Amino acid sequence: MLANMANSLIEHKRINTTVAKAKALKAFVEPLITKSKTDNTHNRRVVFSYLRNKHAVTELFREVAAKVGDRPGGYTRIIKTGTRLGDNAEMCMIELVDFNDIYTNAKQEASKSKRRRRRGGSTSEAAAPKTETVVEEAPAAEEAVAEETQEETKAEAEAPKEDSKEDKKGE
Question: Helices 19-36 and 41-51 meet at what angle, rounded to 10?
Fold first, then answer.
């Protein structure tokens, strides 16, 4: 069962299973991924003896090993997804860490923004033009507000005249 689950994990990069199976699979597949970092005949044969699927072994040594080559460990991530309706078993998703674009892109963007904040000179220079544009935009906004108030006063001035005519007709 673990060999089949490991084949599916390597092929699809993530699978849904129970928490207990995912923990067992993590202990089964992480040493195999570590062996795939060094591509030689001996390691391929050792991994093949566990997986018994040459397509999974080929993908493990080509794609997966290329992405995890610099990582010292922790190649999989377990994310709990709730319970199964039929028997209330705890379900989770186990995935290969470097193949999830959502988490890797978010971390890269967050790290880039932190680097920008740490630079003292570039942030103050970038802030100076922004304040100038705000100062230039402020009078335009005030003019628009002034025009709106003028239109409102004209409308108010016209409204009582119409009311007074209607009042005279009613009397």
Answer: 160
* Cβ atoms within 10 Å of 116's Cβ, excluding its own: 10
The whole-angstrom separation of Cα 128 and Cα 148 is 31
**Crossing angle, helix 2-12 and helix 41-51, to 10 degrees?**
120
pLDDT of residue 100: 83
pLDDT digits (tens, 9 = 90+) for 92-119: 999 999 888 777 676 666 666 555 556 6
Q: Residues 93, 79: contact at Cβ < 8 Å?
A: yes
Length of the chain: 171
Global pTM reads 0.61
155 is written with which tokens? 């409308």
Distance of CA 85 to the CA centre of its chain: 28
How far apart, in whole angstroms, are the C-alpha atoms of residue 39 and residue 47?
Answer: 11
Q: Mean pLDDT for the chain? A: 80
Helix (H) or strand (E) holding 40: none
